[in-house]
Amino acid sequence: NAGVTQTPKFQVLKTGQSMTLQCAQDMNHNSMYWYRQDPGMGLRLIYYSASEGTTDKGEVPNGYNVSRLNKREFSLRLESAAPSQTSVYFCASSERRGSGNTIYFGEGSWLTVV
Amino acid sequence: GENVEQHPSTLSVQEGDSAVIKCTYSDSASNYFPWYKQELGKRPQLIIDIRSNVGEKKDQRIAVTLNKTAKHFSLHITETQPEDSAVYFCAASPNTDKLIFGTGTRLQVFP
Questions:
Q1: A59, B100: Cβ pair inside 8 Å?
Q2: pLDDT (tens digit, 9 = 90+) per residue, B27-37?
Q3: DSSP string, B64-80
Q4: Less CB within 10 Å around the terminal CB: N or C of chain A?
Q5: Would the CB atoms of B97 and A48 count as touching at under 8 Å?
Q6: Rounded CA gap, B68 and B73, in Å?
Q7: Which helix (H) or strand (E) holds B24?
Q8: How many angstroms separate the CA of residue A44 from the nearest CA in chain B?
């Protein structure tokens, strides 16, 4: 049981390049998320998916697209990377239950855009 | 949408002292309030949570209190130890599908 697995762990991009961050969870969770973490800004929600086939914008969706490929996988795509997208990206998942979700995070992906 | 404010941004305490981190939220519909701990270079991990039908919850040296009327919730760590040094995040859930985080508190515990 690996939990939430995301790849790559480290990536350097040039401005204007595109890339996809991959995420998979093996906990049979319904909900999946992408957050970015910047110093002093906390964890900000980019996109989330409440269930397979649905996606919704979070706090900072501009410049990103997502795909919920199936129940296990939720990918984040940067179509034209910008230096402002330099950040640590965390994928997460939760089992939708009751009045709240316990969210489990992946190990993070460190992305630098030069 | 929901907005979560967290204070202080940094907190230094002597080993054995208590530490308190406070958060406020804006959306009265929020009903779930977890706290996450993130050690340097690691992923955030849940340490305690509280739901809106409870005013206080305790787990060994950590406790969380919730005041729904004032839209405040707080994390209390007693008898702090060096291994408590980390960044702590509060969060609020305005619905069952997403979680909005505060900006984090860097706690340093000095021996």
A1: yes
A2: 998 989 999 99
A3: EEEETTTTEEEEEE-S-
A4: N
A5: yes
A6: 8
A7: strand B19-25
A8: 7
